[in-house]
Amino acid sequence: MKTTSPKTPLFIILTVLAVCIIWGSFYTVETGQQAAVSRFGKFVNVTGEGLHFKIPFIDSVDIITVRNTSYGFNDLEVSTKDMQSIFLNMVVQITVTDLDTLYRKYRNNYINSFIDPRVREIIQANISRYTIEEFVSKRQELSMKVFEAIKADMADDGLNVTNVSIVNHDFSDNYEEAVENKKIAEQRVETAKFEQEKARVEAQNRVELAKFKLEEKKLQAEANKVEAQSLSTELLQKMQLEKWDGVLPQVISGKENGLMLNLNNK
Fold this sequence. Notes:
Blueprint: H1 7-23, E1 26-29, E2 33-39, E3 42-47, E4 50-53, E5 59-65, E6 69-79, E7 85-96, H2 99-106, H3 110-127, H4 132-137, H5 139-154, E8 159-171, H6 173-230, H7 233-243, E9 251-253, E10 260-262
Antiparallel strand pairs: 1-4, 2-3, 2-5, 6-7, 7-8, 9-10
Helix pairs in contact: 3-5
């Protein structure tokens, strides 16, 4: 009967251990990444792209993405200068330019311990300088100010902010209701102004018409006066003769004796 050698399990264990040691002695850094190497928990250095050696069980490696990366801040609630609430969705694009500085300060927790709270704080600080109406009308200006503030704030920590965008925003229900009520009030004011202007124009037209009629009467009276002055006694007699048809009146009355004669009796 064939027996198993007592050295066989030990050989297997040593082989597995050797493979683990060899496997754990190398690490690969991909394009757009860098590695932060720590020895006994103490940060040592940064390595770039490629295959690298490390001391097994002694060195630890954190692979960090250093290329331009987008960080989303969704449903971010901020308050305006006039104490209105705005809910924002924003995107901040950041490139790691100095991993050595960034890692020494924040280790591998730089997103949660630095980027996230600082971005939120800067956004709130800038929006609080604007009223909600200014936020709507000056959104591009506000985005630029937030971008410049975040960029300046993170430059000394090994980060380069390349872009800040407000991708969406929403207002509180109270503000939406206030805006709707304001629109209704503005429409009523515009309607009232229109009616007032219409009444003013109509009244002005009536006044102008009355003035026109009065002027017309004055001119007619003046014409009548001129015409009356121009009619002499001789002219009136001539006008009467021109209109006479040659027929004498049938009855004439004598003023002195009151006799009445019928001139047509034969």
